[in-house]
Hints:
Chain A is α/β, with parallel strands linked by helices. Chain A has helices at residues 19-33, 80-86, 119-126, 132-143, 150-159, 166-183, and strands at 7-14, 37-42, 52-60, 72-77, 90-98, 112-116.
Amino acid sequence: MNRNQRFEIRIAGFGGQGVVTIGKILGIAFSIHGGRNSVNTQSYGPESRGGACRSEVVVSDGEINYPYVRKADVLVALSQVALDTYLEDVKVGAIIIIDPQAIKNVPAPERFRLYPVPTLAIAHEIGDVKYQNTAALGALYAFIAEMIREFDLVQALRENVPIATVDRNVAAFEKGKKFVQSTFVLEK
Amino acid sequence: MSPNRTDLILPPGAHYLQGSQACAEGAITAGCRVYAGYPITPATEIMEHAAHRLPQVGGRFIQMEDEIGSASALLGASWAGAKAMTATSSPGFSLMQEVISFAIMTETPLVIVDVQRPGPGQGYITTSQEDVMQARWGHHGEGSIIALSPASVQDMFDFTLEAFNLSERWRTPVLLMAEETVAHMRERLVVPSRDEIQIVNRTRPKDLGIAPESYLPYGHAEVPPMAVWGEGYAVNHVSLVHHTDGNVTRYNSSVHLENVSRIHRKIEDHVDEIARIETRWLEGCRHLLVCYGSVSRTGVEAVLEAREQRNIPLAFIRLKTLWPFPERQLRAIVPEVDTIFVPEMNLGMMKHPITEALRDRCRRVVSIPSLGSLHSPELILDRICEELA
């Protein structure tokens, strides 16, 4: 990432899926542990009604002026509504991570690269649907590994989930990451 | 009250906080130990954080019955010697105007945060800058006001701290005119070391060696020293027109003029000390963009893109202080330009004092409004290109 270049991440789903939590964890990992600048915002007002939920992280080594995502480099969509809503607002060549169980209507990957990751299934393996968000975070990490140290991200994860759930959250992160690394050939 | 635990204020170093949390932490760092409030979207997170944190540092949190009660409670807390604050959003800010006027006249230091949302009426719950005129002119009667406009999480900490310092220094209510945008975003906040943080406390009569028997509650200085209950001084808080001794029965028009003029002048004669602006690329500019609050983040981005991609010689000015309006400072630095653009999250409010200050320096002033959401850089840039085409 060049100086002053923005990297924009958008995570979207339904309220309760933990998209706000992983947005905040990413923000902390980049800014506090990783030494970059980041702004984290979350859906609010009209768009947060009806259960839809969105979290954004803008990352840069320079000053971050406009605080919101303009065109996402990465979109994590955990619901069909989320994908349909934000598909238009991604950069050409963007990485889109979807959960195949939630998203049945999959668009043809023309302007972007689409990666189905079974985050919900991983969460069930770990023992609770509430770990879907950290499974998605692990999957996301696999795509942005050159931007952030895994140690920094896991550290931020550990510090920002309830103590009793730390081990299972880290396990979900690990499974999400491994799924991506073992399933897809990642382009540089 | 439990002991004041200055060891439990936010430690120096990097923190990743929401603007609302940074605001409450800035207040606590400044020495605020009383928060009285009533919840309202999108200001509630400040209250929640204050409710959580104030008891830890030996302060008091009170949920009041409404916004008038909330602001009024600050008067009593301040008269008892505490630094006190509340936070609300636009409809609640309307209700607080009576107390703001009372605090101006009684010269009571207190801090009110308005996390602005769109109006009129209940309007909406998103972001706004529609109260910037109400901040200055909403209270009845004469008297000036100090109002600051934060644009980042760091500002939410720094400007809240500064708001307390200004209120103590000038014995006056200070308004932090925040917006939903800046109150809800999370960013890194860097808290400086304790010895780098300047804390201002109000001057008391004993600081000036004034004996209780010769103390004048509204005398001695342009900003009168303020006595606290229980120290042996006559504590007399008067919102009727008063003499320097607080007497209200010997009314005449010259006393009236002297009383209210001093309260007005103690702010307006010191604009250069109080108000701050930020400038970029003024040298050789042909056009100028003036903004404040979170719009200045979009604004600076739009100016950068206009300069780099469209070759437009556009300069940038951010008003960090809205009131007192820094007219003299602007006139001292702004050269002759063609167009001044003023993007605001209202239909054109600060455009008016900007026009008044710079009308002989430009051909025209163009408002770029957005209601309910922060301008995108494209919105500002497209409008600039359209106007200059």
